[in-house]
Amino acid sequence: MALSPSTPPPSGDPSPSNAALLYSRINGDAALTQALFRQALQDPTGTLSRIVEIGADLGLPVSIAEVRAHIASLDDLDTKQWLLKARGGL
After folding, report:
1. Residue 2 falls within a domain, yes or no?
2. Alpha-carbon distance 81 to 17, whole Å?
3. Which of 84, 86, 19, 29 shows the shortest CA–CA distance to 55?
4. Looking at CB atoms within 10 Å, which of 51, 52, 54, 76 has the fewest?
5. Calpha distance 35→16 (Å, rounded)
């Protein structure tokens, strides 16, 4: 079951953070993911700002600290490789 920001989680389930929801949305858009990766190679801090902007546009407000914390919490080999390639800027 997909959750949107306006859909409450089923009772007993923890509410996913905006950062988690935003990560999922970005991850589902291959073109956006690739554009952010290319930007991260040149401007990691600008990429974080862009992710915050995307969150605001999608009604999923996040801070740079929340984005960093969410990415750090992931146990996903693809994400970890993505971060290595982006020189750890995120």
Report:
1. no
2. 23
3. 19
4. 76
5. 25
DSSP string, 10-60: PTTSPPPPHHHHHHHHHHT-HHHHHHHHHHHHH-HHHHHHHHHHHHHHTT-
Q: Does the model's pTM come out above 0.85?
A: no
SS3 state at 68: helix
What's the number of domains the chain is made of? 1
Identify the domain containing residue 70 by its residue range.
18-85
Per-residue model confidence as pLDDT tens digits over 2-34: 444 444 444 444 568 999 999 999 999 999 999
